[in-house]
Design brief:
The mean pLDDT is 96. The chain is an alpha+beta fold and 265 residues long. The chain has two domains: 3-108 and 253-264, Diaminopimelate Epimerase, Chain A, domain 1 (Roll); 124-245, Diaminopimelate Epimerase, Chain A, domain 1 (Roll), CATH 3.10.310.10. The protein has helices spanning 34-44, 75-86, 131-135, 156-161, 166-170, 211-222; strands at 3-12, 21-27, 48-55, 58-64, 69-70, 96-100, 103-110, 113-119, 124-125, 139-144, 148-153, 176-182, 190-195, 226-231, 237-244, 247-252, 254-264.
Length: 265
């Protein structure tokens, strides 16, 4: 039996189309197997596709890259909240509640942006022989959070120009690698890049979940709890971040690029 489903493609952490990070958002008619969602995500071929199913006072939310399910994704959560308000599944002042592999996550509108409430993931120092060489950088520090390695480098120029050995990174026992440095560009406190060939995403355009690690790290180094971050991928994206105890608030904008209906078996 086929069902008519709605799929949106939304650019997250941007106010203009074709920037930020594109995410698919699929509204489910009933619970479907993970293998089916993985096939849809592979067909969409975006860094993440989100799947929403009503549950209690919110929505069950799962995220898939073209190659794997992930435990936490910021930009596809931002896109999901935007989709719920834009399609009027939720009223404009309602809080979006998501039940996920990382627990309850919420999103709400605040002025001209959407704010996500996520768990903070403070990184811990670690030794990873060969990691700096694979990235082609001189590391000021190596760290790890729940899912990723993080590498601090000395300059913005070094971060922007690096071309890592993705084959080596793909063999690491983590979801991905965050590269970060203090920003010398006016208007930003820190910048980053994120590489995750392990889950089928060589370089992610804008990674909300990485800022669960970056926010407590830079809040401590810069002695401020509210910061403006920039992810320096080819598409680029701006994230307003705020540390609130053991939670991180990630703020950004989103815009729908297209909406489609399709017959799914």
């Amino acid at each position: 039996m086929t069902q008519l489903l709605t799929m949106l493609q939304i650019d997250a952490f941007t106010a203009v189309p074709f920037a930020g990070n594109p995410a698919g958002v699929c509204f489910l008619d009933h619970e479907r197997p993970g293998s089916w969602m993985q096939s849809v995500a592979a067909e969409m071929n975006l860094s993440e596709t989100a799947f929403l199913l009503p549950e209690g006072d919110g929505y069950r939310l799962r995220w898939f890259t073209p190659a794997a399910e992930v435990r936490l994704c910021g930009h596809a959560t931002l896109a999901s909240a935007h989709a719920l308000w834009e399609t009027r599944h939720l009223t404009s002042n309602a809080i979006a509640r998501f039940y996920t592999l990382s627990g309850l996550l919420t999103a709400q509108r605040s002025a001209d942006r959407i704010e996500l409430n996520f768990p903070a993931r403070p990184p811990q120092p670690i030794e990873v022989p060969g990691l700096a060489d694979a990235l082609g950088v001189t590391a000021l520090g190596l760290y790890k959070d729940a899912d990723d390695y993080m590498v601090e480098v000395a300059t913005e120029a070094e971060l922007r120009s690096l071309a890592p050995n993705l084959a080596t990174i793909k063999e690491l026992p983590v979801r991905g690698v965050i590269i970060t440095t203090r920003s010398t560009t006016e208007g930003f406190d820190f910048i980053s890049r994120f590489f995750a060939p392990q889950v089928g995403v060589n370089e992610d355009p804008v990674t909300g979940s990485a800022h669960c690690c970056l926010t407590p790290f830079w809040a401590g180094k810069l002695n401020k709890n509210e910061l403006t971050a920039y992810q320096a991928s080819a598409r680029g994206g701006v994230i307003q971040v705020r540390l609130e105890g053991d939670r991180v608030v990630l703020g950004g904008q989103a815009i729908t690029v297209f909406s489609a209906q399709w017959f799914a078996t």
